[in-house]
Amino acid sequence: MKRLLDQIIEFNRSFVEQNMFEPYMTSKFPDKKFVVLTCMDTRLIELLHASMNIKNGDVKMIKSAGGVVSTAFGGIMRSIIVAIYELGAEEVLVIGHYDCGMSNLNPQRMKQKFLERGIEERTLEILENSGLHIERWLRGFEDVSESIKSSVSLIRNHPLVPKIPVHGLVIDPKTGKLDVVDAGYELTEQPK
């Protein structure tokens, strides 16, 4: 049986040789001028795009566990800021989903899995002693809508994010139905 990477590289050779990439050719700038932060859930890979009429080249797509912005100056926020200032995004959509694996994630159980997979207890102690609160860092959320609102608020109030619409939505991973939990237009539109 071929290893995963070998299978991928074998397929990729024929993909390139047969010019199968041509339908996906586009620029690095999002045609629809928005950036999406969403969950890495496998059910959303094609469903989210189809449910929003997004095609290759339309948007900047950022994925993280739970679609969560957990820190104001981490990689997720940096990606959003780059999408806005360097790539022309004019709106931000934070999209979580029902039945998310980050919902009620158990940090204690996760720490046990670290140990079972060969991470030494001493390593966890060193991380804790250096200021990383592992359980807080791994903690999920109880309510996806509240989690999305929290991430929207962090983005919207970030000192480096201009006054642009930042929206929060939750998608049903079975049907693709989107529920708006926080629309950002009212906060950015000028009174007439």
Automatic annotation (TrEMBL):
Binding site for Zn(2+): C39, D41, H97, C100
Molecular function, one GO term: carbonate dehydratase activity
Key words, A-Z: Metal-binding, Zinc
Needed co-factor(s): Zn(2+)
Pfam families recorded: Pro_CA
Record has Metal-binding as a keyword: yes
Cofactor note: Binds 1 zinc ion per subunit.
Metal-binding as UniProt keyword: yes
Reactions this protein catalyses: hydrogencarbonate + H(+) = CO2 + H2O
SMART domains: Pro_CA (SM00947)
Domain of life according to the entry: Bacteria
Database matches in InterPro entries: Carbonic_anhydrase, Carbonic_anhydrase_sf
EC number: 4.2.1.1
Stated family: Belongs to the beta-class carbonic anhydrase family.
Family matches, as PANTHER family: CARBON DISULFIDE HYDROLASE, CARBONIC ANHYDRASE
Protein's UniProt name: carbonic anhydrase
Organism: Paenibacillus oceani
